[in-house]
Amino acid sequence: MGVPWVLVLSGSLVFALLFYSSGSEVVTVDVRAAKDLLGSGYHYLDVRTIDEFKKGHVNVENPLNIPYMFNTPEGRVKNPKFLEQVQAACTKDDRLVVGCQSGVRSLHATADLLKADFKNVCNMGGGYLAWVENGFGVTIPDTEL
């Protein structure tokens, strides 16, 4: 199999074009379009590690954190239960914006979700870093002293 085709969209065009996705193409939206989608009923799936998520995440209602990869002494390894965990929390018809730290892990996670027949998923290009850079709201949980 080849690398999934990536389409980068911005602004209102994303709404119309998301529905033309064949199920095998990864649609990547910039953070402004992702923010609009999240405000219109999409849910946010953060695929960063739990530690990354705890340091701060996109400020949306009920963000879901399911790591796509884990850090190990040997390096990062793919979460073997990623799809199973997403399917336990979401239906294949749920509308999801998938994000990570910079947009790379979420690109791969979105491709895997599309291959697993999730219908309405898109990758947030630039990830959490771009979200913060654009001055959008973040949640930084209180840490215990």
In short:
The protein has 145 residues and is α/β, with parallel strands linked by helices. It has helices spanning 13-18, 31-38, 50-55, 82-89, 104-115, 127-133; strands at 6-9, 26-29, 43-46, 57-58, 64-65, 69-72, 75-78, 95-99, 120-124, 138-139. The model is unreliable at 1-23 (pLDDT under 50).
- What topology, given as strand order, has the largest sheet? 1-2-9-8-3-5
Q: What integer value in Å does the Rg equal?
A: 14 Å
Number of strands: 10
Output the structural class. alpha/beta
What would you say this structure looks like, in words?
- The protein is α/β, with parallel strands linked by helices and 145 residues long.
- It is 32% helix and 25% strand.
- The chain contains 6 helices and 10 strands, in the order βαβαβαββββαβαβαβ.
- The strands form 3 sheets. A 6-stranded parallel sheet has the order 1-2-9-8-3-5. The protein has a two-stranded antiparallel ribbon with strand order 4-10. The chain has a two-stranded antiparallel ribbon with strand order 6-7.
- The chain is globular and about 35 Å long.
- Residues 1-23 have low confidence and may be disordered.
